[in-house]
Specification:
Its cofactor is Mg(2+). By secondary structure, this protein is α/β, with parallel strands linked by helices. 41% of the residues lie in helices and 16% in strands. The chain is built from 12 helices and 8 strands.
């Protein structure tokens, strides 16, 4: 049972606010898709250890500065239908909107402007680059490349007595459930059976803006005149 109204709304990025998986998209660009995409699928379905899968994918990809900038462009071009309106309406209703993702922070940051989300509310894993732009590693201390990391970070971001909800497609998002933060599984881009089965609330419409009826209470919905798309 969801408990709106919420003060904070957390969104995953890949396959939620955007229609792509960042690592998979980079792998397709570099010709490594056949090797890497099954690792992503297994990690998102909870079939392998997430931290191990994260490290394995980045060791395969070794993305440089050009790759990150290219990925940022793909994110902007592949926003999920209704994402901009959804974020804008939530903010108009006074909600603090965050992106909490295991994606590369440098690419995610460039979503701040098109989505209107403050840079300080975008959370990802920092890529380490050499002075010439080549790959040097990633921030292995980030909770977002660890099992249960999203749950840990979201709890840290919550103020006293604040209520929050997380929207995401994968099992790393589902880990937030049961920590005092409500969870909505999102299957509008990719339906992940493990999440669809375990989530108390599961949303499969392609246009994500209709989530407003779940993220706002009746009074808030009435005040902004939300209508399904």
């Amino acid at each position: 049972m969801l408990g709106a109204p919420y003060e904070r709304v957390f969104f995953d990025c890949d396959s939620t606010l955007c229609r792509i998986e960042g690592f998979d998209t980079l792998a397709e660009r570099s010709g490594q898709g056949a090797e890497l995409i099954p690792i992503t699928r297994a990690a998102m379905n909870g079939d392998v250890n997430f931290a191990d899968a994260y490290r394995q994918r980045l060791e395969l990809l070794q993305p440089d500065r050009d790759a990150v900038e290219w990925l940022a462009g793909q994110y902007r071009q592949q926003l999920t239908a209704g994402a901009e309106q959804l974020v804008r309406t939530l903010q108009q209703a006074g909600k603090q909107v965050h992106i909490v993702s295991g994606g590369l922070l440098q690419a995610l940051m460039l979503l701040a402007a098109p989505l209107g989300i403050p840079v300080s509310h975008i959370h990802g894993v920092s890529l380490l680059l050499n002075s010439d732009g080549s790959y040097a590693g990633f921030d292995r201390d980030s909770p977002l490349c660890q099992q249960n990391g999203k749950a840990v970070l979201c709890r840290q971001l919550l103020g006293a007595d604040e209520r929050a909800v997380f929207v995401g497609d994968g099992v790393t998002d589902l880990e937030v459930a049961g920590t005092g933060i409500d969870f909505i599984g999102y299957g509008g881009v990719v339906r992940r059976p493990a999440v669809a089965t375990a989530a108390e609330t599961y949303y499969e419409q392609e246009n994500i803006v209709n989530l407003l009826t779940l993220l706002l209470d009746e009074r808030e919905c009435a005040s902004i005149n939300t209508e399904p798309v």
